[in-house]
Design a protein that fits this description.
The complex is a heterodimer of chains A (116) and B (111). By secondary structure, chain A is mainly beta. Chain A is 0% helix and 48% strand. Chain B is mainly beta. In chain B, strands 2, 4, 5, 9, 10 and 11 form a 6-stranded mixed β-sheet that branches. A 5-stranded antiparallel β-sheet of chain B has the order 1-3-8-7-6, with no helix packed on it. The chains are: A mainly beta (116), B mainly beta (111). Chain A binds chain B through residues 31, 33, 35, 40-45, 48, 55-56, 59, 91, 93, 95, 98-110, 112, and chain B through 4, 8, 31-32, 34, 36, 41-46, 49, 51, 88, 90, 92, 94-104.
Chain lengths: 116, 111
């Protein structure tokens, strides 16, 4: 039973380029969460999506960042015109239900983004 | 004040000892508490979760929750060098889905 899958595992971009990060949730999971981890810090919530719906994007920067979870295919976190401060590890998590209460979120291996 | 506070460490213990990791939080509405282990360069791995006051044991791990004092702790008995990692405390409110993480405590278990 495959876990949460993310690709690419490492991504190098130059300032001003676009970064696309992909996440496939665990089988049977329809709820996806994106978190960002800066060096030596804890994870920070970015966005919560269900199929074809953004439920909460309160943790996403207002500009340059967007996320989607289409009916078919993986969830995508897109960062336009990347800057050095975007360099971080981006983790995707998934859950069976809505993630409230006792529901557990399972994390993928992450994508390490480095902006040169 | 941060929502979730952890001592960054490192906490150094000899092999076989008990490692005690602590976490305090500010939101009294927090209902669910999680401990994740993260090895360097890897993703967080769920160790334990606890929802009720008191202790919860799973193998060498014991989670302790005290909602009145707003702290949660993780005890690791018979610590092994393979336990050396960063331990992240996370919490969630009753009607919330997003996890709020502390910055983690680095644990070093000396052989």
């Amino acid at each position: 039973n495959a876990g949460v899958m993310q690709n690419p595992r490492h991504l190098v971009r130059r300032r001003g380029q676009e970064a696309r990060l992909r996440c496939s949730p665990m089988k049977g999971h329809s709820h996806v969460y994106w978190y960002r981890q800066l060096p030596e810090e804890g994870l920070k919530f970015m966005v919560y999506l269900q199929k074809e719906n953004i439920i909460d994007e309160s943790g996403m920067p207002k500009e340059r960042f967007s996320a989607e979870f289409p009916k078919e295919g993986p969830s995508i976190l897109r960062i336009q015109q990347v800057v050095r401060g975007d360099s971080a590890a981006y983790f995707c998590a998934s859950s069976v239900l809505s993630g409230v209460g006792q529901e557990t979120q399972y994390f993928g291996p992450g994508t390490r983004l480095l902006v040169l | 004040q941060k929502e979730v506070e952890q001592n960054s460490g490192p906490l150094s213990v000899p092999e076989g000892a008990i490692a005690s990791l602590n976490c305090t939080y500010s939101d009294r509405g927090s209902q669910s508490f999680f401990w994740y282990r993260q090895y360097s360069g890897k993703s967080p791995e769920l160790i334990m979760f606890i929802y009720s006051n008191g202790d919860k044991e799973d193998g060498r791990f014991t989670a302790q929750l005290n909602k009145a004092s707003q702290y949660v702790s993780l005890l690791i008995r018979d610590s092994q060098p393979s336990d050396s990692a960063t331990y992240l405390c996370a919490l969630r409110g009753d009607s919330s889905y997003k996890l709020i993480f502390g910055s983690g405590t680095r644990l070093l278990v000396r052989p």
